[in-house]
Automatic annotation (TrEMBL):
Protein's name in the database: Beta-lactamase
Keyword presence, DNA-binding: no
Gene3D superfamilies xrefs: Rhodanese-like domain, Ribonuclease Z/Hydroxyacylglutathione hydrolase-like
Keywords: Metal-binding
Source organism of this protein record: Chryseobacterium piperi
An individual GO BP term: hydrogen sulfide metabolic process
Molecular functions (GO terms): metal ion binding; sulfur dioxygenase activity
C-alpha cells in the first residue's frame, strides 16, 4: 500500500493518492488532472474510485475531468446531491482498492454532505483518516459556509459538527494518521497548524476544538473570531456541484496570443479586466493603465477569487513570458475559466510600441524613514490579526480583502503611505486604488517587515498573533 499527499501550497490544499496492488483511489483531486494521470501510468495501476469529501468552496476539484479521462466513478458521502452521475455512499459503506478498504464515515457540520474516509490496511488495521474540512490540524472546518443551502444557523451547524467529531472521530485509535484537505493559509479555518500530517492522538491533545468540555463551549469557541468567507466561495461550490468546462477547453481558449495592436480594442469589446501577474517590482515601474496587479509568485489564485469575485468575468492577461499556461491553470483552480487571451510579448511589447503606460510611486523603508512624520497618514492593508500584533502608531488598518468597501472613502487630496507585510498585498491594493483614480499615495517596498528594520518608528506593543485569533 502507498499513500501520497499531493500538497499545493498556494491553495494550502491536500489531495491524496492511494495505491494497493494494481488499483488506485484519489481523494479531493485538484483541477488539473495530468499529474494524477502520470502517476497512474508510472505505477501501472487503474484508478478505481475518485472520492470527494464534500462540495469544496475554496477550489474547483478535478473530479469531473478525472472521471471522464479514466472512467472511474465519483463517490460522495450521504446526502450529497451533485448534478452529475456519482455514487452516493451510505454511512459505514466499504469500498475496496486492491487489498485495502476505505470506510465511509459521514461527518456533517462543515457542510451536510461532509464525509471522512477511513483507510483500513491489508491486515485489517484502521490506519488513516482523510478528513476533508471536518478536521484540520489545530482546527476544524468553519460551520458558517453551508447556512444558505441548509436553512440552518451557524450555531446549528457547529453543533452538528461537534456530534460528528464526538461520535465518528474521537473514538478512533490515537495512532491513526490524520490527512486533512487544507493547512495553514486556507480560509476554511482560522487556527490551522503549519504541519500537513499528524496523528489523531496528538490532535486530541493539541487541537483546541477537540478539547472543549461540552457542546456549548465547542460552538462558542469554533465560531469566535470567524471572519467573512471570501465571496467567490459560493461560486466554487456551484461549479463543484453542478459541473464545469473541461480544463482542456479552458486552456485552449485562454492560450490565445493577442497582439499589441489588438489588445486595447479587444479589452473594450469584451469588457475584460486586464490582470497583470508580474511581480510587484516589475509592475510598479510600468504597466498598462487600469490593469490590476496580482503577482503569480504569491497566493495568486485565492487573491484573484477574493478581489475579482465573479468567476465568469472575462480576463485578459499580462504575464511574464512563458508563464501563461501556469497562470491559466492556477486561475482555473478557483473557477476563473473565462480567460480570453494574453498580451503577446508581454508588457515589453506594449512599452516598445510607445503605448501609454502608468506607474506606482514606490520607496524603500529607509526613504520612508526619512519622509515619515507624526502627521503622516499611513494605511496598513494587512489582516486585522497582523495589525493587532504590531503596527505603526496611528496607522489605519484597511485590510486588502475589504478594499471594495473602503476604496470609496479614500480622500485623494491627502497624501498617504501604503504598506502590507512584505509588498505583495500593498502592490495589489496600489493597482486597485490607481484604477479608481486614486494616485496621491506612496507604496512602501518590503512592507512592515522592512519598516521594522529601520528602528525609527513608534510602533504599538507587540502582541503574539496567536493570542489575537
Amino acid at each position: 500500500m502507498k499513500v501520497e499527499q499531493i500538497y499545493t501550497g498556494c491553495l494550502a490544499q491536500g489531495a491524496y493518492y492511494i495505491v494497493s496492488e494494481n488499483e488506485a483511489a484519489i481523494i479531493d483531486p485538484l483541477r488539473e488532472v495530468k499529474p494524477y494521470l502520470d502517476r497512474l501510468e508510472k505505477d501501472n495501476v487503474t484508478l478505481k474510485y475518485i472520492f470527494e469529501t464534500h462540495f469544496h468552496a475554496d477550489f474547483v476539484s478535478g473530479h469531473l475531468d478525472l472521471s471522464k479521462k479514466t472512467g472511474a466513478p465519483i463517490i460522495y458521502g450521504p446526502t450529497a446531491k451533485p448534478e452529475f452521475e456519482a455514487i452516493i455512499a451510505e454511512d459505514h459503506q466499504i469500498f475496496e482498492i486492491g487489498n485495502v478498504k476505505i470506510k465511509v464515515l459521514h461527518t456533517p457540520g462543515h457542510t451536510m454532505e461532509s464525509t471522512t474516509y477511513l483507510l483500513i490496511d491489508e491486515n485489517g488495521t484502521e490506519t488513516a483518516i482523510f478528513t476533508g474540512d471536518t478536521l484540520f490540524l489545530g482546527d476544524v472546518g468553519r460551520p458558517d459556509l453551508a447556512q444558505k443551502a441548509t436553512n440552518l444557523t451557524q450555531e446549528d451547524l457547529a453543533g452538528i459538527l461537534y456530534d460528528s467529531l464526538q461520535s465518528k472521530i474521537i473514538p478512533l485509535d490515537d495512532s491513526i494518521t490524520v490527512y486533512p484537505a487544507h493547512g495553514a493559509g486556507s480560509a476554511c479555518g482560522k487556527n490551522m497548524q503549519k504541519e500537513t500530517v499528524d496523528t489523531l492522538g496528538n490532535q486530541k491533545k493539541t487541537n483546541y476544538a477537540l478539547n472543549q468540555p461540552d457542546k456549548e463551549s465547542f460552538i462558542r469557541e469554533v465560531l469566535d473570531g470567524l471572519t467573512a468567507p471570501p465571496k467567490y466561495f459560493g461560486m466554487n461550490v456551484a461549479l463543484n456541484k453542478g459541473g464545469y468546462e473541461s480544463l482542456d477547453t479552458v486552456m485552449n481558449k485562454g492560450l490565445t496570443p493577442i497582439s499589441v495592436d489588438d489588445f486595447e480594442s479587444f479589452a473594450e469589446e469584451t469588457g475584460a479586466l486586464i490582470l497583470d501577474t508580474r511581480g510587484a517590482a516589475e509592475f510598479h515601474r510600468g504597466f498598462i493603465p487600469n490593469s490590476i496587479n496580482i503577482g503569480l509568485k504569491g497566493d495568486f489564485a485565492p487573491w484573484v477569487g477574493t478581489l475579482i469575485i465573479d468567476v465568469k468575468h472575462p480576463l485578459l492577461l499580462v504575464t511574464d513570458e512563458g508563464t501563461e499556461e501556469e497562470v491559466i491553470t492556477r486561475l482555473s483552480r478557483v473557477g476563473f475559466d473565462n480567460v480570453v487571451g494574453y498580451l503577446d510579448g508581454g508588457f515589453k511589447s506594449w512599452k516598445n510600441s510607445n503605448n501609454e503606460t502608468d506607474e506606482i510611486k514606490r520607496i524603500s523603508p529607509a526613504e520612508f524613514a526619512e519622509q515619515f512624520t507624526k502627521d503622516a497618514t499611513v494605511i496598513d492593508v494587512r489582516k486585522l490579526t497582523e495589525y493587532s500584533a504590531e503596527h505603526i502608531d496611528n496607522a489605519y488598518n484597511k485590510p486588502l480583502d475589504t478594499i471594495s468597501d473602503w476604496v470609496k472613502s479614500i480622500d485623494d487630496s491627502e497624501h498617504f503611505f501604503l504598506h502590507c507585510a512584505g509588498g505583495y498585498r500593498s502592490m495589489i491594493a496600489a493597482s486597485i486604488l490607481n484604477s479608481h483614480g486614486i494616485r496621491n499615495f506612496t507604496e512602501i517596498e518590503g512592507g512592515f517587515n522592512g519598516i521594522k528594520k529601520t528602528e525609527k518608528f513608534p510602533t504599538s506593543d507587540f502582541v503574539c498573533q496567536s493570542k489575537t485569533l
